[in-house]
User: Fold these one by one.
Assistant:
Number 1:
Amino acid sequence: MPKLPSKWLALAGLLACGASSLFAQDNKALMDLLIKKGYLTADEAQQITTEAKKTASQSMTVVSGKMYIDVSNIDAETASGSKLSTSGTGLDVKRFYFGVTHVFDGMWSANINTDSAYSSATGATNLFIKTAYVQAKFSPEAIVQLGSANQPWIPFDEDLYTYRYVENTLIDRLHFGNSADWGVHFLGTSGMVSYNVAAVNGGGYKNPTRSKGMDLEGRLSIEPIKGLTFAVGGYDGKLGKDVEGSPATRTASRYDALVNYSTPQFSLGAEYFSESDWGFTNSASSDSGDGYAVFAKVKVGDPYWLFARWDEDKTSKKLHPNMKENYFNAGWEYVAIKGVNLALVYKYDKVDNPASASALAKYNEIGMFAQVAF
């Protein structure tokens, strides 16, 4: 192959940059135009495209972002019948993520992703580092991430559920897990099997401090036919509470199971978890809980979807054995364009025999929810 002139190499570099941008699809149109105008021959265009692909595969930077926003009316009350302060009508930006991933070559890459959210404790919007890791991809079956990276269960669950912008997934909503944490993550895919194992500090991505030991979380999933997924997972550790001078007295554990079937026209899934001593690792008390969720969506004409979800859980089976929660949501989604999802949503939550008179007992919400992603 003849050597390309420097100006064409510069063009190849420009196209390589565009390969990871919003305008990547325009590269072919640009090359066709240059051929038509006589600036390039067909052979030169092919050489430039080949060089661009080679350059892009060696080094690439991708910028991404995601925002969850809603305008809704909430009616929430305690067991004593008092209205909670969250009741009323307003707009919430519940999450905004901004991330950068740089691929050095086929093996090495690095990622950083920020998370901003409102904190009722401080009365301000706080900014956190959610993920920050260096990755070594030895093969599709063996990938190592060092730093704060996605945990094995919650992000995997979110990808199958697809409505994180409407509501957190089951164990995330009930605060029995973290979506990301600091540690060593080992994951991979081989044929129909995928796995993810992490040794982490245990305090979640908002708390990077170490304790005397590391927690373990893992997931194994299988897709025997296209669209059908089975997964099991588990967690074991002290949740970052086993520190010198105040050692943890208990070990928290959680077991997970999930099945999901998705096609271009519909999706149906269910998950179950059980846990013990979550949040009680340095407490004199012991507790346990479990719960399940069933979720579904169906396309009702492009680009519209109907979706619904039902959760039932008992999160304090020892200390408050009569407490039981039923949660429900349903909605109509409009996919405006790729990256922009709008949904009219109704949510219902009822807690029987809550732990205290000031705890949530009834919750109703209706409003418009949106996800913007790029």
Number 2:
Amino acid sequence: MTTTVDFAEMQAFIAVVVEGSFTTAAERLNTDKARVSRIVRRMEEKLGARLLNRSTRHLSVTEVGRDYFERASSIVKAAEMAEAAVAQRAEEPKGRLKLTAGAEFGTMRVDVWIAAFLHKWPKVTIETEYTNRLVDIIHEGVDVAIRIGPLEDSELSARKLGELSYGLYAAPDYLQRAAAIRAVDDLKHHDLIMHAPRGRPGWTLVNGEKTAKVLHAPRCAFDNTVAAMNAGLSGLGIVQLPTYMAEPHVADGRLSRVLAGWARIPVPVHAVFASTRYMDPKVRDFVDLCRDGFRSDVERLG
């Protein structure tokens, strides 16, 4: 069967059903009642089915008409969304973009993405708040939040950028003077440096299907990953770090990986933004750039 009903006819029929009147539908469409009536009658002839029951005082939708209305509404809505998406793609990002991220991840990774974004889109300005508190992006007027860890259920939209992988590291001079480390159980004989933001140090390490808990007291406990990394670089012990943070120091010889394969499970990273029907071009393009930047980091660091 060849479809012969066009979008204008669908829109006219949808308006009649929604308004419940040819007269009101015609006003909504900025045309006259007779033309709308002719359109609907022509549709019924083409489809070979009655869509509306008419009387001098009453208008009702037939069962077939109701089914057609629901399907036609979906088609028209999809077409409108497609047109809006194309229009937005053609629009150059501009204006202020307000961002938030964790203090450490913001200064070590998001800064790089911001610089790339501003070089690409000169009409955009950026305002950031790097903080480890959970920002209410709706009430505080934030466009995008970069969040690490599982997301709470909310009415916000989110796009996963990737996952942070981790490893255990130590400075070469520490490893030279410390006991050999060949298994997780050997960690009890070593100085450990832990990131413990809530004052409860401890590691849960996984390696494939195997899991091990490391609960003995560390030599150093920090509420900041950069501080923990600096202690590791100073040769104070073994530290668990995100690979993006540690691998540059492995490359220059200041850190070495220990117990390869053992680390905490990867942690998801998301870009979170207000749930809207159409994304603002600058929000959409920034989120896309963050996702591509995250993927490049993973490929570069292996």
